[in-house]
Amino acid sequence: VRRRPLSGHWAGRAGQHLVGIITERDLTAAMAEGADPVLTPVSDYMTPAPEVLQPDNELADAAHLMLELGIRHLPIVRSGLLVGVQSIRDLLDAEVHHADGSRAG
Amino acid sequence: MPGPVVCVPPDMRLKKVADLLVTRAISAVPVVEDGELVGIVSEADLVPLELAPDPRAHLLPPADAPGHLPKVAGEAMTREVVALPEDADLAEAGRLMLERRIKSIPIVRGRQVVGIVARRDLLAVLARRDEDIARDLEALLATELGAPSPYRLTVQDGIVRLTAPADPTTRRLAPRAGPRGAGVVEVRFVQR
Known about the structure:
The complex is a heterodimer.
Chain A: E1 20-21, H1 24-32, E2 47-48, H2 59-69, E3 73-78, E4 81-87, H3 88-104
Chain B: H1 14-23, E1 28-33, E2 36-42, H2 43-50, H3 73-76, E3 84-85, H4 90-100, E4 104-109, E5 112-118, H5 119-126, H6 130-145, E6 152-156, E7 159-164, H7 168-177, E8 186-191
Parallel strand pairs in B: 3-4, 7-8
Antiparallel strand pairs in B: 1-2, 4-5, 6-7
C-alpha cells in the first residue's frame, strides 16, 4: 500500500470525543452470547479506546495496523476529536483502482 | 487463503455460527452439504436478525413481520454465492469484493470449496514491503538469467525500476514481473 493520504468515510457527527468503536463483528459476538439487542448498551460490546490514526498517517500505516491487529476499521482522530473512519474496504478500493490506473498508463 | 477452510453444515445453529465467526476472526463461512458449496453466511447476514421485531414489543406481530426467523445456517445463508476458481487472479477478487460489496470469496474446484479469500488476504499481498518485492524479483531474475544478474533493480512504493542493457530479454520478463506480481504497482525499464 502506497504513500497516499487517508481517505476514510464518515457518516456520523464528526468532531466528538471518541470513546469506542462497535462493528459488525462486535454485533456478531453479541449474538453468539445471546445478548438482548434491545436492553444491551453498545458499551457492553464496543472496543473502548481503540487504536486510531492521525489525518497525516499514510494508507500504508493503516494497512499494516489493520493486518497486525486483525481489524477492519480505524477511527481517524485529530486533537482527540473524531474526524473520520478508515475501513479495509477503502484501502482495497484505493489499491484496486491504483493498480488499474498504473496498468492502463 | 492459508490453512484449511472453515465450513459449516446447513443445520448448524446460527448462534454457533456467530460464535465460530468471532472466535476464528472471520467475516463469513461457506455452507457445505455433501461436500458441495450450497451457500455462505456472513456477519452481514446475522446482524439484521438481531434487529428483527421484538416479539415482546407487540401483542400482535406487525403484518410484515416474518412468520419464521432463521434459526440455522441453511435458512440465513446467501444462496447465490460469488465464488472464483483457483486460477483467478487477486485483482479480479479485489474488484469483485468492491463491486458486490462482499468481504470474502470462496475458491472452488467444481462445487467443492478449496479455499477462501478475504479482504484482509488481499491487503496483505498489496501491502507487501518494497524489500520483499525486490527480493522476490531478484530471485526471479536469477532464475531466468543466472546470477549475478546484469540488471540493477530498485523498488520504491511498489514501483519497480529495472536498469538493463537494451536487450529483448527484458521484454520477455515484463509480463511476469508486471503489476500482477504480488505488491508490484508498476515496472519501469531504464535502458542503460
